[in-house]
Amino acid sequence: MEILSFLKPKKKKRFVSENDFIANQDKQFRLSIESLVQLRDGGVEEEDELKIDYFFYTDTLEKSEKLEGKIQKLGYIVNHGTASHDKSLFVVSGRTTAMKMMHETLREWIGEMCELGYQYDCSFDNWKIVEESK
Fold first, then answer.
1. In whole angstroms, what separates CA 116 from the centre of its chain?
2. pTM greater than 0.85 (yes/no)
3. DSSP-derived 3-state class of residue 30
4. Given CA atoms 37, 38, 41, 45 in this order, what sign does their dihedral have?
5. Which among 26, 32, 95, 125 is least buried, having the fewest CB atoms inside 10 angstroms?
């Protein structure tokens, strides 16, 4: 036991733990299957291209700004701000470019978003496929 341990700088606690990251990624993969089943029922085929609205949450403005910058480089619409439901959180949200509604494509995109969120200590919280009105 170190007597002066209180003098050491405290390690900042992550907003997204590794366990939370893994659990969230599994949840998002399951949701992708459900979403694709609903799309097929609605007549959307694998070759159809749709955009996706996405949402990340984090606990500092700096993290949200860094994630926003990275997402801009992907060519997506993106913005950040204070979360409306909790003023202590920051949201990064936007819309992707159009992508094929294939299982492999959606799974790869979800994996990328989860990894990106974890890299910037943000939670990839939610996404929704934007169905175009025909």
1. 7
2. yes
3. helix
4. negative
5. 26
